[in-house]
Amino acid sequence: MSDAHNEHQSLIRTPKQLVVAVTGFFLVIVLGIILLVTFVTSTATTGAGTDGQSAEAISNRIRPVSEEGFTLVDANAPRVLQAGGAVYAATCAACHDSGMAGAPKTGDNGAWGARLAQGYDTLLKHAIEGIRAMPARGGNPDLDNLEVERAVVFMTNKSGASFKEPAEPAPAPAAAEAPADAAATTVAPVAPVPAATPAAAPAAAPAIASADAGKKAYDSACIACHGAGIAGAPKFGDKAAWTARLGQGANVMYEHAIKGFQGKAGFMPPKGGSTLPDAEIKAAVDYMVAAVK
């Protein structure tokens, strides 16, 4: 009985033993902390931004922007016309890759069959001048006729045609030089003409074209999309569709109409794909706005 009682007694029987046990416990903890700190600090680590003040990092930050991605171009140099594939990717693919707004998809021979039957000249005329929902020059008025031709050939040849790549026109001959003795040619003196009484200056033309000009511009550049609500365009006379646009203000609508706009619902090319002056585009916007007020 006494042996069983002794087995269940605590190992710590005196205050001295308790002090020794507690001290040993804390020593083990302290030793463990020291070893952990030694392990962590013995490995060299590099944090984000550690080399931010190095000579190389500073040099990269103050390097001129012009060294990256900028190429100086001589404005007086002859224009280099784009290849058909480049024009297609930048201007035509938005509609002809997906068949948006009724555009025949590139590579769909069935969709192109009736159009190819019209002939190359008709296809080119429609591409340059626009037809139905397709704006003139695909909405990029800066394209040269030859660039449009190349894009048409590129697109149609992938859709069942076999048109020949258009040749670049020969450069215009240089103007004949003036004769060397032109400076020595004697010119007969001309009697002075009496100054006429200055006439009254004509009245300055208004900055914004008249309402008639607005309707004319609308019929020319806007009706293809806004007449039927194609490609997300708010339909002419539809007050509900125009409410959000009217809330943006006239200046924003003018800017979108002149510079073009890419939204979630659709795409509007600059100036509706036309080459009309800014004043006439603004007049067309005013004409459409007046129809929903």
UniProtKB/TrEMBL annotation:
Entry keyword Metal-binding: yes
Keywords: Electron transport, Heme, Iron, Membrane, Metal-binding, Transmembrane, Transmembrane helix, Transport
Domain Cytochrome c: 79-191, 209-292
Pfam families, per database record: Cytochrome_CBB3
Residue intervals passing through the bilayer: 18-40
tRNA-binding in keyword set: no
An MF annotation (GO) of this entry: heme binding
Protein name: Cytochrome c domain-containing protein
Provenance organism: Massilia timonae CCUG 45783
